[in-house]
Structure formats: C-alpha cells, structure tokens
Amino acid sequence: MVMPGTDRTGLAGPLRRALADAGWLPSSDAAPTPSGWSGADDGDGGAAPVVGVDLGGTKLHAVLYDPSRQRLLDRVERTDPRGGTAVTSQIARLVESLTAAAGLAGRPPRVAVGCPGAPDPVTGAVGHAPNIPGWDRMDVPADLEVRLGARPLVHNDANLAAWGEHAWLPGGGDLAFVAVGTGVGLGLVLGGRMYAGSRGLAGEVADLPFGSDPFDPANLVHGPLEQQVSGGGVERRYLELAGRRRPAPEVFAAAADGDRAAAQVLDELGRLLALAVRAVRAIVDPATFVLGGGIGSRPETLTATRRWLAVTEGESLQVRTSTFGNRAALAGALAAAAVA
C-alpha cells in the first residue's frame, strides 16, 4: 500500500509544478498540494532525484524528476524480451542514464516501478505477468536494490495509475482505474491508500468470468475478460465479424467511417467493460471510475461503456477517461517515490 502522509522532502509542490509545466496536468494552480499529502511545499530539502518507471511487455519508460532544477527527463526503450535479470539490469541502466544526464550521478535516487502482474509483498516475485518471463521466480525489489543502491517500490502498473489520478488531482475519494490496452487491469485507491490485497492480486479483473469461458484452458493465462477486452480481443472479434484482419486503432477508425462490424466490436467492448465496472462497484463501490490505457482512454470506449451503464445505473456512476493518458502509471510512480 501507499499511504497518505507528511511530505518530509518538500517535493510535492515543486514536482506537481514540473508535471504541469510539462503538460501532464491541465493547470499549475489547481490542487497545489497532492491529495493526502501535507508538509513542506517550497523546496527540495536536499532531496535525492525521483524516478518513476513504467514497465510494459514491449516498452520501458522512465522519467526522472531533478529537484535541483525542478525539471523532468525521460527515456524510452523496448523491453528486453528475455525478462528476468535482463530486465532488472535494463531498468538500472536506464535509471543510471537519467541520473547522469541530470548531473546527479552518484546520488541513489528514489525509484518506483510499475509493472504488469501481481507483485507479492512477501516474496518480491511478480506473478501473472507472462510478458515479463522469470519475474515470477525472483525477488524483484531485492535484485533492483543491489543494482540501484537503494530499494525501489514495485507496484502493479494499474495500481500506480490509480494512485497518480488520486494523488495529483483535487477531490480525492475512492477510485478505480481500469486500464485497457495490450491487456486489462484494475488499480484501486481505497480510504486514501493504494490497495493490492494480501498477495498483490486485487484488481486482476482479467480473470473475471465475462466474455469467454473461464474454464477453457486457453483462457487460464490471460483470463476470460482479457481475451475480449484488450487490443488483441478487439482485433480477433473484428476478424470473426468481418472476415479480415485490422489492428485495433484501425477498427476504431473504421467504426467512425460507418463500418458496421467495427461498430459492433466497439459496442460489445463497452458492454463488457460496463459489466466489469458493475462487478467492481458491487464489491468496493468507488466514487470514481477512470478508464485508461491505449484503448480504455479513447472517447469511443468511454461513450460505449457509459451507454451500457446507463441501462442499469442511469447517471449514478462517475466514469471518466484518464487525465494522464498513457503516462498515468508514471505519474503514480513519481508520486509514490517522492514520499517513500
């Protein structure tokens, strides 16, 4: 969990202004202190640099906040497909490259890593992440600590995305972040804390029994909901209906151009997302649902989901798209690392 507390480093305000200056936030004067934080807001307090890392199956993106110059630096690489220590080594090299570029080499930074799957808070292994092979058989935070010189935070990427939406925006309140892209995941902020469950498995909505047979062995790796609610699911469903292949972005474009098969795919996507949202609401009843990821953050996805929710929920559910877009996990990682 990440808990609200005192910003002893004084990083909250300056980091928020840096995010606003970089265009991550809509305004530099809204919510000057992130939700749930208190304390100094006027300087860096001699703080170490802060690095947020968003690890995906194909892309590794890291952003450093330089407190001495109050600026952001970032690097993007393709994720090493070998997984395991090849990826932890890659993360360490990327962090080292950023600190050197900022002129801060030799100062161990505060690092938070967002990754797919379920980081186990006891063993440090990351399960349910088939695109990062080997992480389910190693203590990931311990390995990174050796390489970085300081122990990082390692959280599910959707949980960090939820934390970013909660921490940097006014209002607070319980929040669920539904990420739809290569796969589907859920991040939860409940009672001002990022909630991952006893084994890190809270929010693994890919396993919800919607969209396809949960007992089919083919659905045991990615989950029945993810087989339909994902980029691959959109592409497979369009192939079934239209008899030809199109990448997911082209399916959205085709729907806008009047392609009936594409329009049906998006309608079915919204229906399944509405079912997932209702299931989450029934258990934890968050004040706000945020749709993110490459597919979830699209306005067409939001419209289709709201249309199906209106059938049973009317206007009672607050559902919106992510403020940070594809940088939501990074925004949450920076917030988590800043007060770690």
Describe it:
Residues 25-45 are annotated as: Disordered. Pfam families: ROK. By secondary structure, this protein is of the alpha/beta class. β3 (50-55) and β4 form a beta hairpin. The termini are close together. The protein is globular. The model has no long low-confidence stretch (mean pLDDT 90). α2 (84-101) runs parallel beside α3 and α8 (260-284) crosses α10. The strands form four sheets. Strands 5-4-3-6-9 form a five-stranded mixed β-sheet, sandwiched between helices. A five-stranded mixed β-sheet has the order 12-11-10-13-14, sandwiched between helices. It has a two-stranded parallel sheet with strand order 1-2. It is built from eleven helices and 14 strands. It has two domains: 5-163 and 327-338, 2-Layer Sandwich (Nucleotidyltransferase, domain 5); 173-322, 2-Layer Sandwich (Nucleotidyltransferase, domain 5).
Labels describing this entry:
340 residues, alpha/beta, Nucleotidyltransferase, domain 5, globular
Layout of strands and helices, then pairs:
Layout: E1 5-7, H1 12-21, E2 37-39, E3 50-55, E4 59-66, E5 71-78, H2 84-101, E6 110-115, E7 118-119, E8 126-127, H3 140-148, E9 153-156, H4 157-168, E10 175-180, E11 184-190, E12 193-195, H5 224-228, H6 231-242, H7 248-256, H8 260-284, E13 288-292, H9 293-296, H10 299-313, E14 319-321, H11 328-338
Parallel strand pairs: 1-2, 3-6, 6-9, 10-13, 13-14
Antiparallel strand pairs: 3-4, 4-5, 7-8, 10-11, 11-12
Helix pairs in contact: 2-3, 4-11, 6-8, 7-8, 8-10
